[in-house]
Design goal:
alpha+beta, 99 residues, single chain
Length: 99
C-alpha cells in the first residue's frame, strides 16, 4: 500500500510533502528544511517561518516563506509543475481529488 500524504494546515512540512507527492514526484527525492527567517521581519515583528526545498538528484534548492492562512503553497506548486525541479520520477500522477 502506498504511503498517504495529506495536506495538514498545522504542519507546513507535511503539506509540502503532500504537494510533492500529488504533483508526481517522489517525496524521498526531496530534502525539506524548516527554519526561521533571520533577515526578514514581518509587520508584527516576528521572524517568518521558511521552508527550503532541495531535490537531491539535481541539488536545486528554493526557499518558501510560510504565510499563515495564506496561499503559500502556490509558489512551490508552480515550481514543481513548471519543471523547475525537473521531471517527476513517477510515471503517473495520483488524482488530486483522492478518488
Amino acid at each position: 500500500m502506498a504511503e498517504q500524504f495529506t495536506v495538514n494546515r498545522d504542519d507546513p512540512k507535511q503539506s509540502l510533502q503532500a504537494l510533492i507527492f500529488r504533483t508526481g514526484f517522489d517525496p524521498a527525492d526531496f530534502e525539506i528544511k524548516e527554519d526561521q527567517g533571520v533577515h526578514d521581519i514581518d509587520v508584527g515583528g516576528h521572524h517568518p517561518r521558511v521552508l527550503t526545498l532541495r531535490r537531491r538528484g539535481t541539488s536545486l534548492r528554493c526557499s518558501y516563506q510560510i504565510v499563515s492562512n495564506g496561499p503559500w503553497l502556490f509558489a512551490p506548486f508552480s515550481d514543481l509543475t513548471s519543471g523547475r525541479y525537473g521531471s517527476p520520477g513517477r510515471t503517473s500522477r495520483p488524482n488530486f481529488l483522492g478518488s
